[in-house]
Amino acid sequence: MSDKEIKMMNQSEPEKIKATLHKSLEVLNNLEQCALLDHPDHPNIGDHLIWLGEVFYLTDVLKTQINYASSVENFSASEMEKQVGKSPILLHGGGNLGDLWPKFQNFREQIISKYKDRPIIILPQSIYFANQANLLETANIFNSHPNLTIFVRDNYSYEIAQDHFHNCQVIKAPDMAFQLVNIPGLSFKQDRGKSVLYHCREDAELNQAFSRDSINLSDLVIEDWSSSKYQSHYYKNAVKMWRLARILEGLRQGKVIPREWISRQIWKNSHSYSTKFNTIYNPSIHRESWSYMHNGVYQFKPHRLIITNRLHGHILCTLMNIPHVFLPNSYYKNEGFYQTWTYSIPFCRFVKDPLQVPSAAQELLKSFSAQ
């Protein structure tokens, strides 16, 4: 048996998924420089995990220069062309290729329609169209581009892309957040308490069978991403001022600085990955994503078990080795991803019936809480 085969046998399930991601992305191997568009200018931590995976894969694995990066709101065609010329454009992955989140789909289609003079790559996405006419319209736009590559992250999306995007290169790949496997600082087993977190989204993707009051467990904490309450820039700034005032008042009274603040400063300034953004275009947006990742890690680490209906709640639990129950969203995204890639994660159970959540949680607690 070769050393490579032995290494593959010894890999954990998340490491195997990361290796599959690298294999799927091999068509990008000669990518010297690029523009990376659609930075998540919103508090959905899952999108920031994806963005960081994209940045680290491009810079660490491919050694690609990201010479332009922007959000949808801050995109500048003239600045992009000044920085990258006719180099490839990469579009951020995630779960918004379709008609459920039109803002991002409209931007994607505008870029694909305008820039037919260069390769465009859509990084791993889930595809969902509630309206068939919208799918056909998108297919016309995508198929009109002479060099469009679409990475899709589940079997359902792959079938849709194969059936409709016939002039595009379609490749199945795991979510880009799996590039974050084995990043230092993600294991917090020693800090976990007794609580169970129901990490519950309440937006357009909520499966109504799994509403906030559908889970009956003791010591249950119910919340969405901790950053979701900081959506507006005004509110973000207000929160920063409140945190600073709290720290200063604590110091004046001789009290200990809040642990969250200390943890955040270490994450931002002392983590081995925190300097990676210095040589990338627009480093502040990448540092913002890094800070959002801390929000998610810090939110999850105190809990002995997590129940989540968010795909990246599931993926972050997988990165952090936290036992968790994974629930459906409003369409096939969560279940499709689980069936395609993560069904072998030993400390996860995918549950489609709310009445089965308590037994799945107890099984996981019994099997994994002592590890």
CATH architecture of the largest domain: 3-Layer(aba) Sandwich
- Per the principal axes of the C-alpha atoms, what is the gross shape? globular
**Poorly predicted sequence stretches spanning 5 or more consecutive residues:** 230-235
**Number of H/I helices:** 13
**Largest sheet, if any?**
7 strands, parallel
Class of secondary structure makeup: alpha/beta
- Overall mean pLDDT: 90
Helix content class: 40-55%
Distance between the termini: 31 Å
How many strand segments? 12
Structural overview:
With 371 residues, the protein is an alpha/beta fold. The protein folds into two domains: 3-180, 3-Layer(aba) Sandwich (Rossmann fold); 189-230 and 269-368, Rossmann fold. It is 43% helix and 16% strand. The protein contains 13 helices and twelve strands. The longest helix is centred in the middle third of the chain and has 20 residues, at 233-252. The protein is globular. Mean pLDDT is 90; it is low at 230-235.
Strand-helix topology:
Layout: H1 3-9, H2 13-24, E1 33-39, H3 45-61, E2 65-71, H4 77-84, E3 89-91, E4 94-98, H5 102-114, E5 120-128, H6 132-143, E6 148-152, H7 155-164, E7 169-172, E8 196-199, E9 220-223, H8 233-252, H9 259-269, H10 283-300, E10 305-308, H11 311-320, E11 324-326, H12 333-342, E12 348-350, H13 357-368
Parallel strand pairs: 1-2, 1-3, 3-5, 4-5, 5-6, 6-7, 8-9, 8-10, 10-11, 11-12
